[in-house]
Amino acid sequence: MSNSLSILSSTIVKQSQKSLISKLNNNNITYRTSFPSSSFSSSIHTSSTSFQIKNNNNNFTNNISYINNNNNNKSIFKLFNNNGINNNNNNRFYSVHTTPTNTPIEKKTTILDIKKKFESNIPITMVTAYDYCSAKEVDNAGIDMLLVGDSLGMVVLGEKGTSNVTMEQMIHHCKAAMKGVKRTFVVGDLPFGSFETSTRDAVANAFRLMKEGGVDAVKLEGGKKHAATIAAIVNAGMPVIGHIGLTPQSVSALGGFRLQGKTSEQAMSILEDALALQEAGCSAIVIEMVPEIVATQITKQLSIPTIGIGAGNGTSGQVLVYHDMLGLYSDFLPKFCKQYATLSKTIQDGLKEYKRETEQRQFPTQAHSFTMKQEESQMFIEKLNILNNHNQEESSTASNNKQNIDSLFSHFSNPNNINQSVKELMEREKAMETLTFVKDKKSNNNNNNKSTPLLTSIEQAKLNIVPDKKNKKKIAVIGAGAMGSFFSAKIASKEIADVWMVSAWKEHVEKINRDGLTFYNLKGEKEKIKSIRATLDAKEIIKDGYPDIVFVLVKSPATKQASLTASTIVAGNPNAIILTLQNGVGNREEIEQTITEKGYKNRVWQGVTSNGCYVVEPGIVRHTGSGPTYLAASPSIVSKSDYGMENRQDSKEEREALESLKDILINVGIESQVSNDIDALIWGKVVANAAINPLSAVLGVQNGYLINNEYPKSLMKKIVGEGMEVCRAKGIKLPYGDDTEQGFKYVTDIAQRTSSNYSSMLVDVIRGQPTEIKSINGVIVKEGERLDVNVSYNKMIMEMVLNRHPSLSSSSSSRSKSVQHL
């Protein structure tokens, strides 16, 4: 039987009645049939033929239904037994879809096909859909027209209306829908604001929708006032579908989503609109939400199709929204929409069942899972056991270290201590507010919003930091805390350079030299990096040559010492670049001053990084948060408009070197960008740190406490406001804008994301170590007083941090964590 049907399916579409009967005879099939007298239909409609066959070997009789649909050129054979039940003989349901090689390619519906259907008085079907999946279903259902409507604003994007939809959004959805159709005629909506301003804009945007979106025609809303615009688009060679009655883009002017044409005068006006659009060249017109009699009479007056929606049954066709008619959009169901399905309930039931099965571990079953060979799985478990044993040893050490620092935090986290600290803050604030702050402007502040940069000598040799496989670059990292360890690990992991670390942390240095640096990435994957060389003595770095790049990654109180170290290891290479990625303001200037005083000509670059990490214990660093690293060259190559000087002759060379360094970082997996406004990024971070770090240090709390309690939250806002005012006075445009509320929201968002973290400043206070307060709040105070800006809250919190002497700081004999949150 299977062979008989195979032969039948491959030939029936090209056989006449006579040859088809002959073929059935040749395959031992007894038939009883009645064919139409004419050839199979070649029009847009479907022809079907039914006949009976009997397999002489298997002794059963079946009914075969043959359907030839020239719309999609699919020939369908359905086999049923005498009782009308699918024949499951041989476990197969015979539904054969074939496209013989001599069958024409599936025909795309054109505007002429729509016109022919209209002239044949056969109602036209249109559905509004917005994406690939829904468009594919519309196409498979044989719907004549698909409208990618700007109603996607409400249905897909969740807007309250359609007026916010942009050309880019329409193009995006049109492209998606076009990929789902093979036959259906697709129309794209011109969104609000894309055609009203001028005829030229209308034509240009219509071209965009057809060229970029790929649609077959465009639709625009409005009556006779847009007739000239429609004519211009049509004259440019593009089919246009009009839209009258209720026009959603003008719903505000129409008083809401209301029935239009309720009076004879209004009805005549809509008729005038229709006639004007026909005269302008519209291929069809959508009529929305008008009385049935009005739409019917307008249709009779026109010689082009009308597509109704909420306009009764007298139009040339109908359009409904995919989500409405299938019960997918539950927010609102218009009166004119019939729901042909209630998929929302079906979807909800499916999702709830998925949730239930997942939570009860009933899904996935073995049927939905994959296996591996038994010997491979055994080897995997053995390797995992070895790894777990090693990790348990590391975790035990890390746990002890965590307990040490948590015990220190617990002293500050005690509610009585926090309340006492809050009381102290309130008293300091009250005392501060009773004072009158008088600030004298410095004579040189009148015209200077930015400090004059320290210029380096222009007589420098050619920069060369591009990686070279034959001659590896040498990179030195000053500071082996969290960020120093992170950058060292990432760069060394790719082996594109010889990496040295210099630090005073003896245990960390010894562990790296003995066992390598263990690095855990964001996924928790472990990598052991043994190519890093660490030292306590910077002079050891230069025994085999001077570095090409030096990263400075110490906390700002150690900048002076780090700058002396940097000057030592670049002394023999005037082309070496020094890059600081430290928190706060003034670090680059201090390093550059030291380098210059030593008589060296090395360039000092500055950057800002948003990566987060911490040292779990000596020799182990964990990456906890990823973000971009921004790089900027020394200010001596900035434009004349910034500092009133001409560009240096070697600025191009330096910018190229900067791009090379950016590429190095990207190559090792550190997202990097070159910035032309590093001041904005540095000060943006300073303002955020100024509001979070010192308050957490004074109160001894996690970051989340600051935003979950009104009093510290109010102080944060005042500190942010002062910092932003200083930036405004300096002419610095912050990344989060000029509005204080926006700046405060940006800072509170950071505190929210790091709510369980203890700030690095609190860690320093607990350990009795110098903090970065002077390079954060201190620079806000310094610049504020210079520019006659009130910075009293920043000054108050800075003084309180400087006066902190925790009784437990001396008990912190070992370094348990190097924290870097912001």
From TrEMBL:
Q: What is a biological process (GO) this protein takes part in?
A: pantothenate biosynthetic process
Under catalytic activity, the entry for this protein gives:
(6R)-5,10-methylene-5,6,7,8-tetrahydrofolate + 3-methyl-2-oxobutanoate + H2O = 2-dehydropantoate + (6S)-5,6,7,8-tetrahydrofolate
Keyword match Transmembrane helix: no
Ranges where the Ketopantoate reductase N-terminal domain occurs: 475-633
Q: Which Pfam families does the record cross-reference, listed alphabetically?
A: ApbA (PF02558), ApbA_C (PF08546), Pantoate_transf (PF02548)
Could you confirm whether the keyword NADP appears in this record?
Answer: yes
Q: Tell me the keywords, alphabetical order.
A: NADP, Oxidoreductase, Transferase
Q: What class of enzyme is it?
A: transferase
What InterPro entries has UniProt attached to this entry? 6-PGluconate_DH-like_C_sf, 6PGD_dom2, ApbA, KPA_reductase, KPR_N, NAD(P)-bd_dom_sf, Pantoate_hydroxy_MeTrfase, Pyrv/PenolPyrv_kinase-like_dom
Query: Which CDD domains does the protein's record reference?
Result: KPHMT-like
* Family, per entry: Belongs to the PanB family.
Protein name (database record): 3-methyl-2-oxobutanoate hydroxymethyltransferase
Source organism (scientific name): Cavenderia fasciculata
Give the lineage.
Eukaryota, Amoebozoa, Evosea, Eumycetozoa, Dictyostelia
